[in-house]
């Protein structure tokens, strides 16, 4: 299931208020539409284009965000 247009707008507006506001909005949306968000199990199957900044479960990523010294 995906987020509705209205839910996306709520999240976009919350993001303008900073991380705390966005976290609260995500928590509220997750209660009403839990299948629209990844959980630890679904993240393990995910392929990211860019390496995530945080250590989260994932299958793999395509582009590293840091350079390895040679």
Task: Quickly describe the structure.
This protein has helices spanning 5-16, 19-32, 40-43, and strands at 47-50, 60-63.
How are the strands ordered across the major sheet?
1-2
Beta percentage is 5-15%
pLDDT under 50 segments (min length 5)?
none
| Average pLDDT taken over every residue | 88
Number of strands: 2
Q: Taking Cα atoms only, what radius of gyration do you get, to the nearest Å? A: 15 Å
Large-scale geometry: globular
- What separation lies between the terminal Cα atoms? 44 Å
Order of helices and strands: HHHEE
- The number of helices is 3
Number of domains: 2
Structural class: alpha+beta
Q: Major beta sheet, specifics? A: 2 strands, parallel
Into which percent range does the helicity of residues fall? 40-55%
């Amino acid at each position: 299931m995906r987020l509705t247009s209205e839910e996306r707008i709520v999240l976009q507006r919350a993001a303008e208020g900073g991380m705390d506001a966005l976290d609260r909005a995500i928590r509220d949306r997750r209660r009403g539409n839990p299948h629209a968000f990844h959980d630890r199990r679904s993240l393990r199957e995910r392929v990211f284009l860019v390496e995530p900044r945080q250590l989260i479960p994932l299958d793999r990523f395509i582009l590293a965000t840091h350079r390895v010294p040679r």
